[in-house]
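Our preliminary data section would be incomplete without showing what the modeling component actually yields. Below, a chain of 303 amino acids is followed by its predicted structure, encoded as tokens that our downstream tools consume directly.
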Amino acid sequence: MNPSSPSAERLPALDQLRGLVMILMALDHTRDFFASAPFDPLDLAATTPAYFLTRWVTHFCAPVFVLLAGLGAYLYGSRGRTCAQVSRFLLLRGLLLIVLELTVVNFGWHFDEQPGFYLLQVIWALGWSMLALAGLVWLPVWAVGAVGALMIVGHNLLDSFRSPPLGLPDWLWTILHVPGNLYVRGGAQVFVLYPLVPWIGVMALGYALGPLFLRPAPERHRWLIALGLALSLAFILLRLINRYGDPLPWEPQRTALWAVFAFLNAEKYPPSLDFLLMTLGPALLLLAWLDRAPGRIGQILIT
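Predicted structure:
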């Protein structure tokens, strides 16, 4: 593709959205390190509205990071690169992120030079999702999107299995779907907080959105608004039906405010269908707004 074409330019809205979720992520990690509350901020029986909302708003961070990583991979390839080049880039980047999760990031959480405990979180999920996408990029874009949608919509069907299906070993089931401990040689303990299946789906969906960002801005805005509203409405309807989409259905609460909190309290580990609809729908709407109104705040977010 000609480097002088519009697709060769950076799209400020993507960087602004990344900047915004980085600010939110810092908010959550500050609470995690410095707050003294002896309870889970999402525990409706113990939390306060301020604590709940401070934690809940940060739910947008991981889905947005993963979605934009997939979108960025498509735009990277759209600038005259071959599938082989994009695949190689994703392989190297994914492996680097996995190594960083096990070293620099793990040290940043625990400040232990010889750790016996490893927590596998969003950087790990990003890395493995890139490795998966390195294989998926050889498929047509619509097929990548179909794989992503199938993972996102269907993975909660696996919640009903009490043990790994299809004879999968326990360790692989933990990595793919159920958060839990892995024990490795030498006595080290590994806790998988971010199982991979839904996150791979989110990155694949982001990749499939890529062609939309090569279209003229007015058309892009219309699509982003339509998709954002559709996902947000699907979350509301699915949550109201309360039969599928989250492993723990919400229940009536003591007041209307707490009922709203229960409604919004979707499962993140792994991210349920409700969780992803709840976060990705508004993210697309916000992306449409940022694409039109950069301004001074937009420059701050990019920085």
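The beta strands are 117-120, 180-183, 189-192. Residues 6-216 form one domain. Preliminary results of this kind motivate Aim 1 of the renewal.
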